[in-house]
């Protein structure tokens, strides 16, 4: 009942070579009602000429239906961009998603909540039920909002408290009440900064790690961190104070809403599990990996010379089970040539061990047994989208005589320096041009002409990130950017990580691994044309609507032809829209939801 991943060309392939749609033999969608898949849009001429359909009575049911901080959108447009606007609205009968039993209608994630496909799995031994199982065709429905939903608490207050009604999940409050993860206080969920291993708070823990391992140098030598099994992401949240950006990773499991809590707090986070498939990150991406189990997959995404920080009970407890786990850890890390740098305990007796990944192949070649073996071409493609986990170790690209050259530059210098990557289409000239272009656009257009209240923006996603120039231009703002490199585009994600930014691979003909209502700005640049050759524009619009918070913005940069196709669809969703300089379509999501 699970569909095969949407067939796509190899990374760097031409958009014209992409197939026309998802595999025909795919499983049926887990969204029940056929009415949730509206007919293709047909533009309707006429109308009032304004950019907003009339508000329905449904809007008034939400306490924050009007964003007092938001910038009002001028229906007449900016810089003469709307001279030919006819007020067209696509004829689409949108409906709310009808989900199956066991799935929250307000937290629906199509590729992680496909109950029919999950029930058909032959095994769940390796967490297969937590992996992606995308319905086909993709749903064209809208996710409901929780009762009493309101605009999120602004950053930085949101790091410590969020509205309970926005993420009404009390289970974790009760389950982790003795570990100081999260508590409920009136209308808020409060995050005291505690955790299983953070007896004196996460800030003290971060300080302790740097104290026992000074070369980790938070915010200069260490910029990008992967936190595996992140709880409510307080570790990543407090590392932001040190100029470190952390990808907090956890599955959608019985610890309900961990990642949703993180994103509502304004902390970078992503739903994922190390099951049978690779994580959607490039090889050698992160400076530090925190917690998790030291599997070959974490070795793959950790850069040569990077550190693995492990704080778990086997490090410091003496029970037989913990000792067995520790002995297995010693055997595995030796086989991967990880060097134990330091093992220490804090004043509470909580232990931390820090390993370092080798920077050359000399240790691998000197092992008595070649297990795990070094990866070669016969082990298959390195590209990690729907790819099985490696059973091999990725060899280093540098020789033993050149170990120091493998370390990245210090932050923030690395942000503006190009690092060569395996994709031959990536060049320093393209990198410099992308950086220069977005720096100019952000300063001259986005801040001045866009009807976006940037002071209320915290979580940003660049849906076609290229070299990360858009994120680099925003780096001084109190926000963070999830850089997405779409399947079928040039593989520039290694460049993005080398700059000290974070991101993932994704196919936008499928749903993204995030909860509904988790981003303030979605930015899509020059992608819609190639994307709609493989999937319907309504499916793309429904996914955008699922991810975007009410009262927040979609920024689409594309040709006027593509803008004219998307604008009526956004209007059918009751978005307020404006065209800027005949290159950008800015749409503001309202609190409207269909009655059905």
From TrEMBL:
Biological process annotations from GO: methylation
Keyword set, alphabetical order: Glycoprotein, Methyltransferase, Signal-anchor, Transferase, Transmembrane
Signal sequence coordinates: none
GO-annotated molecular function: methyltransferase activity
Any Pfam family hit: Methyltransf_29
Membrane-protein topology: Single-pass membrane protein; Single-pass type II membrane protein
EC numbers, comma separated: 2.1.1.-
Domain of life: Eukaryota
Residue ranges, annotated region (Disordered): 1-65
Any one of the GO CC terms: membrane
Database matches in Gene3D superfamilies: Vaccinia Virus protein VP39
Main location: membrane
Cellular localization per UniProt: Endomembrane system; Membrane
Amino acid composition bias (Pro residues), ranges on this chain: 1-12
Top EC class of this enzyme: transferase
Family assignment from sequence similarity: Belongs to the methyltransferase superfamily.
Protein name: Methyltransferase
Organism: Aegilops tauschii subsp. strangulata (Goatgrass)
């Amino acid at each position: 009942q699970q569909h095969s991943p949407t067939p796509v060309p190899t990374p760097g392939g031409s958009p014209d070579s992409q197939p026309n749609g998802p595999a025909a033999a795919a499983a049926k969608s887990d969204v029940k009602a056929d009415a949730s898949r509206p007919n293709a849009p047909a533009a309707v001429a006429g109308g009032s000429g304004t950019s907003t359909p009339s508000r329905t009575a449904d809007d008034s049911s939400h306490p924050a239906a009007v964003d007092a901080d938001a910038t009002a959108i001028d229906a007449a447009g900016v810089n003469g961009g709307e001279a030919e606007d006819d007020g067209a609205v696509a004829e689409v009968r949108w409906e709310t998603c009808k989900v199956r039993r066991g799935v929250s209608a307000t937290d629906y994630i199509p590729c992680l909540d496909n109950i029919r496909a999950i029930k058909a799995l032959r095994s769940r031994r390796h967490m297969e039920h937590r992996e992606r199982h995308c319905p086909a065709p993709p749903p064209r429905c809208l996710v409901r909002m929780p009762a009493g939903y309101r605009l999120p608490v602004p950053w930085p207050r949101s790091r410590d408290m969020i509205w309970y009604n926005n993420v009404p999940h009390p289970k974790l409050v009760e389950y982790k009440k003795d570990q100081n993860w999260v508590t409920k206080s009136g209308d808020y969920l409060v995050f005291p900064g505690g955790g299983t291993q953070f007896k004196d708070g996460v800030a003290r823990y971060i300080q302790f790690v740097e104290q026992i391992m000074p070369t980790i140098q938070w915010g200069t030598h260490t910029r990008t961190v992967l936190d595996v099994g992140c709880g409510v992401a307080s570790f990543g949240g407090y590392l932001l104070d040190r100029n470190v950006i952390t990808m907090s990773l956890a599955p959608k499991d019985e610890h309900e809403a961990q990642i949703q809590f993180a994103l509502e707090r304004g902390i970078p986070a992503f739903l994922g599990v190390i099951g049978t498939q690779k994580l959607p990150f490039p090889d050698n991406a992160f400076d530090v990996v925190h917690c998790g189990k030291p599997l070959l997959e974490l070795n793959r995404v950790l850069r040569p010379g990077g550190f693995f920080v492990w704080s778990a009970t086997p490090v410091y407890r003496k029970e037989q089970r913990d000792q067995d786990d520790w002995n297995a850890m010693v055997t595995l890390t030796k086989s991967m040539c990880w060097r134990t740098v330091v093992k220490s305990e804090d004043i509470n007796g909580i232990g931390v061990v820090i390993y370092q990944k080798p920077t050359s192949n000399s240790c691998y070649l000197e092992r008595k047994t070649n297990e795990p073996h070094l990866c070669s071409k016969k082990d298959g493609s390195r590209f990690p989208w729907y790819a099985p986990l490696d059973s091999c170790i990725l060899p280093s690209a540098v020789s033993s005589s050149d170990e120091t050259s493998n370390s990245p530059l210090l932050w923030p210098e690395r942000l503006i320096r190009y690092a060569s990557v395996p994709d031959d289409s990536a060049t320093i000239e393209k990198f410099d041009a992308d950086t220069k272009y977005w720096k100019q656009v952000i300063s001259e257009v986005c801040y001045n002409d866009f009807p976006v209240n940037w002071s209320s923006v915290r979580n940003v996603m660049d849906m076609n990130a290229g070299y990360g120039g858009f994120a680099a231009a925003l780096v001084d703002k109190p926000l963070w950017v999830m850089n997405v490199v779409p399947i079928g585009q040039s593989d520039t994600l290694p460049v993005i990580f080398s700059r000290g930014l974070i991101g993932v691979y994704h196919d936008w003909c499928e749903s993204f691994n995030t909860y509904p209502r988790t981003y303030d700005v979605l930015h899509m640049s020059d992608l819609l044309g190639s994307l709609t050759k493989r999937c319907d524009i309504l499916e793309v619009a429904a996914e955008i609507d699922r991810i975007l918070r009410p009262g927040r913005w979609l920024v689409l940069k594309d040709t006027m032809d593509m803008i004219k196709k998307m604008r009526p669809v956004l209007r059918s969703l009751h978005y307020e829209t404006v065209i800027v300089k005949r290159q950008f379509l800015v749409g503001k999501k309202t609190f409207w939801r269909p009655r059905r």
